[in-house]
Amino acid sequence: MNRTGRSAVSSEKRGKSLTEQAYAILRERVITGVLPPGVDVSEPELADQLQMSKTPVREALARLCVEGLMEAFPRRGYRVTPVTLKDMDDLFAVRGVLEGTAAALAAQSLTEDELDALDRLADASYIVGEDVSTKTFVTSNETFHSAIAQGSRNPRLHSLVMSHLEECARLFYMGTRIRDINPETINDHHRIVAVLRQRDGEKARLAMIEHNENTRKGLFAAMVANPQPGISL
Amino acid sequence: MNRTGRSAVSSEKRGKSLTEQAYAILRERVITGVLPPGVDVSEPELADQLQMSKTPVREALARLCVEGLMEAFPRRGYRVTPVTLKDMDDLFAVRGVLEGTAAALAAQSLTEDELDALDRLADASYIVGEDVSTKTFVTSNETFHSAIAQGSRNPRLHSLVMSHLEECARLFYMGTRIRDINPETINDHHRIVAVLRQRDGEKARLAMIEHNENTRKGLFAAMVANPQPGISL
DNA sequence: AAATAGATATGCCACGTAGTATACTACTGG
DNA sequence: CCAGTAGTATACTACGTGGCATATCTATTT
């Protein structure tokens, strides 16, 4: 088998396979809340919906199980992983550590161009302002955080940050009052870029951890004010 | 679908399905070096070896790909993920952060019984002493680190620590001179338990990070002294 | 050197198997 | 006669097999 100059599936751009499609669609549905936590899904039902055989659906579900977005009950079916307050706490705890580390490393290796790009990304988040939809907020937020994580020059760390970011995004789609945490988020972002420009790793770590804590608080407040189905508090 | 009192597949003890079997066998082969980094594997070949159809093999390979132990090349095949020096550096960097955090949290929540158990685990590592086989060393080491990570009371963090620990174990099986890093490891372990007993989270974090750094250095030294196939330095 | 044919890999599917939960029935005890 | 329970039938579910189609790589031929 010759692989010279070829990339593995994880970095393939044109994911044409049905398995990839099913995975992308189902993951999107889980994250955006179309498939809320706790609901049951079955292979034949999804295969019918997605107009494909059960096999690609099955493989997509298996992948989602590994990532923790779904749970498999052998011989019985699948369920979208329920979310508890403890889970959310744990998630944000790990995310803070990972992103804090990424920011500390990024402070020492980000180029000037990348820092400028970060400024623009933070501004873009600001521009959308008040009536920002959840989707645009999540997308813009992910781009910003991803850029910093990539600045760590540690692909493994970047990948971990991204997967945790996506799980947080799932929570954003549940906490409907995005506006409540938005302005603080923008300020945090700008402050993070500022300390990154100072090349101060420890300051950057602390700024990122504090930002993480702020979003956690805002999200939790929005959630208790607006309880969601499938979330045990 | 009724799930009262039932557990998901991830926590099922009796993994009877062929997919689970194939996954366990292949993962073991990759970690222990029976399948060294860089070698090609194919579904039909493995299906023949494991006396099963291609489907369970395929799902096991997919799972290994998600975990990063294998790479998928669409329409062409699979390959055991090659290991580079950069990858190892990145791995240890992330591992240090994760385990350091776990230790810091564990310092505040480990019970006296659990601390006693940790002492015994550290002693068990010591007893095996000089002529320790790689497998017993890896197993004992994993048990010790797992117990601390579990003390963080953060299942997500524990799971991440374990997966990284297993990837490190894979490197241990390659760096054949386990003896070179063994005594230092035992001392580190005892020191970690000591600071955990002091309930000092920051000390525990630092001790764990230093231990991580020591094993990294020892492993790298053993590797340059004894180059392995499939590892680009 | 370019084109082509063969070999081999995955991607996908239809079908059969086996395990599980539920609904129904029959039986038992009051 | 009724209530409750044990057993059974059925209708789901995932699991696994084998085969076909298609894409890719290699070796050969023009």
Cα shape of chain A: globular
Binned strand content of chain A: 5-15%
Compute the separation of the termini of chain A in Å: 52 Å
Helix segment count of chain A? 9
Helical amount of chain A:
55-70%
Q: What kind of assembly state do the chains in view correspond to? A: homodimer
CATH topology of the largest domain in chain A: Four Helix Bundle (Hemerythrin (Met), subunit A)
What is the largest interface, and how many residues per chain? A-B, 36 and 37 residues
Q: Compute the CA-based radius of gyration of chain A.
A: 19 Å
Poorly predicted runs of chain A are 10-14
* Element pattern of chain A in H and E: HEHHEEEHHHHHHE
Give the full name of the CATH homologous superfamily of the largest domain in chain A: GntR ligand-binding domain-like
Mean pLDDT of chain A: 88
Helix vs. strand class of chain A? mainly alpha
If strands are numbered along the chain, what order do they take across the biggest sheet of chain A? Answer: 1-3-2
Sketch the major β-sheet of chain A.
Answer: 3 strands, antiparallel
Q: In the residues of chain A, how many domains can be counted?
A: 2
Q: What's the β-strand tally of chain A? A: 5
Q: Under the CATH scheme, which architecture of the largest domain in chain A would be assigned? A: Up-down Bundle
CATH class of the largest domain in chain A: Mainly Alpha
Task: Give your account of this protein's structure.
The structure is a homodimer of 233-residue chains. With 233 residues, the first copy, chain A, is mainly α. Chain A has 2 domains: 16-81, Winged helix-like DNA-binding domain superfamily/Winged helix DNA-binding domain (Arc Repressor Mutant, subunit A), CATH 1.10.10; 84-232, Four Helix Bundle (Hemerythrin (Met), subunit A), CATH 1.20.120. Chain A contains 9 helices and 5 strands. Chain A has helices at residues 18-32, 43-49, 54-66, 85-106, 112-128, 134-150, 155-174, 178-197, 201-225, and strands spanning 40-41, 70-73, 77-80, 83-84, 231-232. In chain A, the strands form 2 sheets. In chain A, strands 1-3-2 form a 3-stranded antiparallel β-sheet. In chain A, a hairpin with a 3-residue loop joins strand 2 (70-73) and strand 3. In chain A, helix 5 packs antiparallel against helix 6 (134-150). The longest helix of chain A has 25 residues, at 201-225. The N and C termini of chain A lie far apart (52 Å). The model of chain A is unreliable at 10-14 (pLDDT under 50). The interface between A and B is large, with 36 and 37 residues. The first copy, chain A, binds a DNA duplex (30 and 30 nucleotides) through residues 1-2, 17-19, 42-44, 52-56, 58, 72-78.
